[in-house]
Amino acid sequence: MSTSIFEADSALLRFLSKVADVMVLNLVFVLTSLPIVTIGASLTALNYTALKIVDRECESVLDCYRRSFRQNLRQATALFGIVVGLAVVLVAWFLIADGLAIASIIRFALYIVLFLVTFQAVIGALFVFPYLAKFEGSTREVLGNARKMSLRHLFASLAMLLTTGLPVVITIFYPHLVGYGLLWLAFGFAAIAVVNAFLFSAIFAKYVPTAPEGVA
């Protein structure tokens, strides 16, 4: 006898259950990010829960999220401050470079250098909070290992940069395609985290025995 699509273990209900998990995860992420200063902890908990969902180790989205949020609140907040500070510095460098009275060829070379530095900083930042969600380590170790992993797994970094950046670009230039932000509130942040979690899970699996001691 064929399995009914409405049975508890049917593919349809399993899919709908995952969709519900993603929507709940997105709602919790948005709510816990409202104080702004907690965004770092929220990003860590978002990635922790997304990894658990992908690895089929999450029985309760709320429990997984709450556990990671509380455990990493202080360190994640410090890391978020560092990331924001670095972003401010990079923007300042571009503004300074744009205002310098120098030859065009020198300005072009300076922009190339700034672009490469910014690119490394961005892909490294993509790994910071997922790394903290998976491994333990000092703030220096988290930043260093996140940077090394992002460069070592460059194709994965580019893929995650695309899946993270493309929705942002679409939202800015074609806001009607995302319901003027409604899709972000419904499931956008969590959906991106879950998609990226498939890549992070595969990458982190290679470092599970050694990553807490540092990536050589």
TrEMBL record:
Can the keyword Transcription be found in this entry's annotation?
no
| TM spans (from-to) | 23-46, 76-96, 108-133, 154-174, 180-204
One Pfam family in the UniProt entry: DUF624
UniProt keyword Membrane, yes or no: yes
Q: Write out the entry's keywords from A to Z.
A: Membrane, Transmembrane, Transmembrane helix
Coiled-coil blocks: none
Matches recorded under InterPro entries: DUF624
Protein name, entry field: DUF624 domain-containing protein
Q: Which organism is it from?
A: Miniimonas arenae
